[in-house]
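Okay, can you check this protein?
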Amino acid sequence: MGKSENIETKSSVERSARVDLAAAFRLAVRMDMHEGVCNHLSLMLPGTRDRFLLNRFGLHWSEVTASNLLSLDASGKILQGEGEFEKTAFYIHSRIHLANPNAACVLHTHMPYATALTLTVPGRLEMVEQNALRFVDDIAYDDEYNGLVVDNAEGDRLARVLGSKRVMFLANHGVIAVGKSVAEAFDLLYYLERACRLQVLALSTGRKLRPVTDKVARATYAMLLEQNTVYADAHFGALKRLLDREEPDYAL
């Protein structure tokens, strides 16, 4: 493969990454996972460990496109794109990306049902419903709200709490989901909100939650994890086709 082919391949890979992340923003709007011009989604640029894509501050998520995403390095230098990024976005996402090689994609939202659980004590997702069983022993709980994340120290603390888990509940704040791809992280975020919604609805009846045995919960989690990539790719692919028909500008 010649030099020009290498450049073209790199360009094609980055474009695909940008399209996927832009799709996640648009889909989050459709699913009520966004909030004002706040919250943030990021993606490590394929083949790097210190450069990532992040949304520009001030854009509604319905305005995000593949081309207006910012490209940053680990020091916060904007390598490509116009505008600024939100400080909290940089300190949350950069530190998690650097600490966790499996966190290629980091999604942080204040989506309503999951966030509602972070406002309660003990604020746990109960393993009582099939969607919830995707998360058996895979959620980190940060029970210490320290205000806005505005420095490396707090970003590093969050990264330590997350550890190798794929989801984190931030007390009094919101949630984070991470994955090896946008498809995997978004699929987690989607089913997390569904599971939290059902728990909130079930508790609203005033009745006790019906338990699932630990043995069944763990066996179900193992089966779901084994199929995770295939189902996540299929789910995200279907959602992107919906955008291709109804909001094709996301890919511009």
